[in-house]
User: Fold this.
Amino acid sequence: MRTVTYTETGPSSVLTLAEREVPEPGPGEVRVRLLRAGVNPTDWKFRAGGMPGGMPFPEVSPGQDGAGVVDAVGEGVTSHAIGDRVWLVLAQHGRPLGTASELTIQPAERVVRLPDAASYDLGASVGVPAVTAHRALTASEDGPARLAPGALDRMTVLVAGGAGAVGNAAIQLARWAGATVVTTVSSDEKATLARAAGAHHVVNYRTEDAAARILEVAPGGVDIAVEVAPAQNVALDLEVVRPHGLVSIYANNGGDELTMPLRAAFGKNLRFQFLILYTLHAHLIAAATEDVTAAIEAGALRVGEDAGLPLHHFPLAEAGAAHDAVEGGAVGKVLLDIDD
Assistant:
């Protein structure tokens, strides 16, 4: 099988296309023949050596997200059968063989049914972004633990950076669940994408008074802020999130240090939820994959320009260029085309 690997951390040039033996699934495992793989920021950050753990294996094939067809099942697997269409989440977490490969072996719980009407492009795009967005929307003290139509009725959600992959998923999932969605963007181009994703209100924070615009929509404050840049946006969050509201922080765009006036947060009894999937409880990931699949089945999660998430396709042999595109801030979702 063809697979992209690296044996040392560094720039994208450490990635090489190699031939390896076809792996066999063990007990509780599933082998998936991949058609598409998603590329996320953590993929290039792990490859570059910028994340904890260094090189956990002598050789790594990157990629947490992907979509394809079940090719073989190991002993004891009853949840999947050969020929099933599936999407993957956290495929390379704690394992050497991710999704930048023609075949991958995964624990059955990381292999999720892909509805028949959904494209493999969509299946490869939802993993890390959509599961992250799900957790961001369900971590409230007094909000729903699961997403479904009506779960966020009468709630207002602020999504910082609505043109990003997580932001796009958060907009679509929040709207599906019944929330009024406000998002902030930095350009007219990104405003167009956020509207295509389904945001009810779009605020350009470079040209508008973001706090005033958000509080026009939600005079009592928003219920949830899905935050990508806390170092830059904490003052805005403190101003526009309602008492007992939630700030869900999933990234460190714009700075690694967060400084905030404590009394402002005390005074509102705010909840700050930091989140990353790699240490998230298994039952939360399972709940997210179920709800995300339901949203896919309902047609509420989409990809492509008309859904606010342009797709950028690279062949498997150009995985390095795909990593560079994500590192360079490509707007939309970068995918590896592994098979037609």
Remarks:
- The mean pLDDT is 96.
